[in-house]
Amino acid sequence: MTILLFVAIFGAYLLGSIPFGFICVKIAKGIDIRNVGSKNIGATNVMRILGTLPGIFVLFLDFAKGFFAVQIFRWLFVTKFSGNEFSSFLIFIAIAAILGHIFPIFLSFKGGKGVATAAGTFVNLMPFPTLFAFIAFLIFMIIFRYVSLASIIAVITLFGIELYKNITNFENLPFLILTFFIVILIIYRHKENIKRLINRDEPKVNFRKKK
Asked: pTM, whole model, 2 decimals?
């Protein structure tokens, strides 16, 4: 069983490592996305290079790999573990998928910021709190048009909701630990964006069709 779990975690990491943004830009333009725009492989940079629709397509793919990394584990192992034990293993699967996107083995461990893939895992693990995080993301995105700011606010919102749910007896402690870990990781991955936000030179997103 230990070997199977290791294989499952490594499989989640490999799935998270698939660099859809890199692949799409390479196919469409024949260029390395890591050398243009923000040099990030995520959907936001794809949107800047290829336009809104390709960016949304990559966003969906990055989201899906996080969601299905967790879901595949559910399908394979749901009958083999007790409730709390199963939840704990789901956390490891989610973290593996997110780390795969951020540190992909296929791109020398230099990947994206992890927001879309993390969102996919969160929708699978905790859909109701994620809905509120998504609403917070949309509000800040519409008002300010900074993906980085909206992403940071969204993960902080998610952690705040999980903390509120657990504040009395901490019965969902594994999910609280997961959200705290992801908040710290995503804020760290956005450290350059935070500097640009403070200096007011962070680029805004323009939703347009690339010519």
From this structure: 0.92
